Amino acid sequence: MKNPTKVALLKNMVGPGEVDDDLQPEVTEECSKYGEVVKCLVYEIPSLPDYEAVRIFVEFTRVESAIKAVVDLNGRFFGGRTVSAGFFDHKRFANYDLAP
């Protein structure tokens, strides 16, 4: 596993324009089974390719929780899409530097 952090980055859960008010609480609830979620942030960049346009960041209290989430969610099907899960730099997340 490459450079684990407390922040999991989920891509390709939904496409551009598909973000609704239920997405953030649904992701928070789903991810809480891996450990305590500090924050869940949905960030949409319409100019990126479809599979990267919606980036969902989930900050956990522990690195171990983020590792469990990434292992379990990477490759999982969600709404007809294959989720891509990885880690995101905690300092960049804390500074809201969320673009690729």
The order of strands across the largest sheet is 2-3-1-6
Would you identify the regions where 5 or more consecutive residues have pLDDT less than 50? none
Q: Order of helices and strands, N to C?
A: EHEEHEEEH
**What's the tally of helices?**
3
Strand element count: 6
Characterize the overall form: globular
Q: Gap between N and C termini, in Å?
A: 19 Å
Largest sheet: 4 strands, antiparallel
Q: Which class best fits the helix and strand makeup?
A: alpha+beta
Q: Provide mean pLDDT, rounded.
A: 95
Q: From the structure provided, what is the oligomeric state, counting identical versus distinct chains?
A: single chain
Secondary-structure map:
Blueprint: E1 7-11, H1 23-31, E2 37-44, E3 54-60, H2 63-73, E4 77-78, E5 81-82, E6 84-88, H3 90-94
Antiparallel strand pairs: 1-3, 1-6, 2-3, 4-5
Features:
6 strands, 100 residues, alpha+beta, single chain
Your description of this structure?
The protein is α+β, with helices and mostly antiparallel strands and 100 residues long. 25% of the residues lie in helices and 29% in strands. It is built from three helices and six strands; from the N terminus they run E-H-E-E-H-E-E-E-H. The chain has a four-stranded antiparallel sheet with strand order 2-3-1-6. A hairpin with a 2-residue loop joins strand 4 (77-78) and strand 5 (81-82). The protein is globular, with a radius of gyration of 12 Å. The two termini are 19 Å apart.
